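Narrative of activities, Objective 1.

The group set out to show that a structural description can be obtained from nothing but a protein's sequence at a throughput compatible with the screening campaign. Below is one input-output pair from the validation batch, recorded exactly as produced.
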Amino acid sequence: MSDVWEEFARIGGFMEKRGLILSSHSGNMSIRADDYIYITRRDSMLGSLSKTDVVKVHLHRDDENAALASRELVVHREIYNNTDALAIIHTHTPYATVLSMIYDEILPLDEEGRYIVGRIPVIVVERSIGSEVAAKKLGLVLKDAKCAVIRSHGIFAKGNSLEDAYRTVSSAEASCRIMYLHMIAQQVRGDGNIP
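Output recorded for this entry:
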């Protein structure tokens, strides 16, 4: 468990330094280990995780630790049960969240974003936090995409490891920032065409 916690703390620290955690106690991370998930505790601070901030829960059913796990446990379970994911990161990045309010799908303008992330589907649900509806939609869309954004909520990225999922989140947010700045530049230039 010590190695697991250290990897969570390392990636959480990277995310905080890169500005990928918008508010102090938001977001969550998990890894799959056979029929179990190691997931951040409810209301933990991703940028400052302690050993007790990562809990082990069963993949398919609630156990004594399920109530301690992130409110998004239902989403993590659905993604693991329907995709090839071995790790998941969910965070409320500002640029991806803003663009999710404008677009139904985000298509990176930059080469790195197109190469690393590809398309970024936008999921629309009425209630997004810990939602079974969001879980079902993400479980489907992440079969073919590396990440997706829940409109006005945040990004979910899958990977083979936490570092792989972090790379996707980081690249997706960088692409969304580039796209947002491109929109502003077009407005300043006066052509007003938004991609």
